[in-house]
Amino acid sequence: MKRLLLAGLVLAASGATTRAFAQAPDGKALYDENCKKCHGAIGSPPKTMVTKFPKIAKFDAEFIAKRSVDSINKVITKGKNEDMKSFKDKMNADELAAVAKYVHELAAKAKP
Ligand code: HEC
Predict the structure, then answer these.
(1) Which residue has the CA at smallest separation from atom 11 of ligand 1?
(2) What CATH class is the domain 25-109?
């Protein structure tokens, strides 16, 4: 009986850690789902989008020189205009922060 109880405790504990990991938002997955179609897989917008939105942001060295994770977070939370809309209804604060961090990483990795 004691053994069973112990096994149960171990299971419960491991279940809790798995859940904690699953809860950490995946910035890349969120980006791919919400931003990729306009901004491109690696932050370089496809031609069709550049034609449609001449001012669309390219996530590169020049971009990162002017923006921090916080400023990116602000844009996606509040939105900039009707083309670059707010994502605050689609993602919670943790998810917005994860996407902002991912965009910053993409830009930092981009070739000049
Ligand atoms: C419908 C297409 C579209 C989608 C989807 C989209 N964007 Fe944009 N984004 C734009 C356009 C267009 C601009 C340029 C807006 C302007 O400056 O007029 C822009 C600008 C930006 C900027 C720069 C704003 C600035 O000037 O500081 C950031 C950062 C950004 N987008 C991040 C994101 C992120 C992150 C997502 C996904 C959560 C996303 N965008 C989804 C079209 C889009």
Answers:
(1) 56
(2) mainly alpha
